Amino acid sequence: MTRTLLLLPVQLVNKADPTVRDGGNDTPIQLVTSGSVTSLDSIAWIAASDTTQSQVVTGVYPPRMPELVASSGSIPGLTYCWKLQVIFHDRNGNPHRDFDTGCSYNTNSSPSAVPQDTVTIPATSSSADPNNVSGWHQITDGSPWKIYQNPDWTAAVSQGFFGGDAVLSLKILDSSGNTVTPEQDYKFRIEGENPDPTACKAYIKYMSGYYWWAYAIAKHETKFDGGREYYNEFLDSGSKSSKQKPGKQGRPDWNNDGSKQSPVNGSGGYGLFQLTYAAGESNFIMPRNWIWNWQANTNQGISDINDKYSQAATWVGSQQARTTTLTPNSLLK
Fold first, then answer.
1. Euclidean distance between CA atoms 102 and 88, whole angstroms
2. What pLDDT digit, counting tens, does each position of 41-98 carry?
3. Is the distance from CB of 208 to CB of 218 less than 8 angstroms?
4. Cystine design at 8: which of 62, 73, 76, 88 (Cβ 3.0–4.6 Å)?
5. DSSP bridge pairs for 184
6. Contact yes or no for 79/170 (Cβ under 8 A)
7. The model scores a pTM over 0.85
8. How many angstroms separate the CA atoms of 79 and 303, rounded?
């Protein structure tokens, strides 16, 4: 009996992916039990364009987190215990820390003092999951676990899109609560899909208004990053770029910008507008939504442009006021 249960198929799908991948059908995710996750088939994609939602501007739809559903057989009298953990590791394989919302530190803090960005379903604290038992989502009827409808998942998404290295875990208990099959971990990745260039440009121009030329900034900042010509929020899949190594596809487009990726030296640049913050700036902790949601990155980029413009206008105004108060005698001093 135990031998049979160990062979129960564990499946993970991305529900009704609205992108061109697999023609809009449910997309199976290839799970990995050992080694590195390098195959494109092992990626649950953050869709760049969700055609099931309303258009933001003509021809432009908002992005969407993957809608994950896990399943593993259905045998009466057994309890299926699931959990999911997602950690974003940087390009060097280190847990990323400098954008984790809610962290606080000063310029003398070490990188290790800032918690890494980890999403756990059920949540490790203040879980809203009604089926959470000791950190596991328990299902007694063998039905699939609709992760994307779990209240802890929706709460995490509401705080901002997220991605990275994911582990789906399963253990099975009998009716007495005894372990029938021990915990087994299945690895995959959650990564981002780049927006269509035409749609991306249209969205930037729509959102920028007065700053109609803002699209040129995004176009320049991420040109050829990951192999695609322009508008790379993420390293593009299928590229031959040196940055496009197996296991890197769909990772956030990040550039060092001279920093060392620590609280002391700044965050480096992320996404379409290469958002970069340095130690001491109020927004130094990079919100995950700016990294994983190309429209959120655009919105913040335009906000930054407006801030810079306002600062420049204030400076010009102060200089003009200073000039009008000067008298000929004061100019001779």
1. 16
2. 999 999 999 988 999 999 999 999 999 999 998 888 999 999 999 998 765 565 554 4
3. no
4. 73
5. 170
6. no
7. no
8. 49
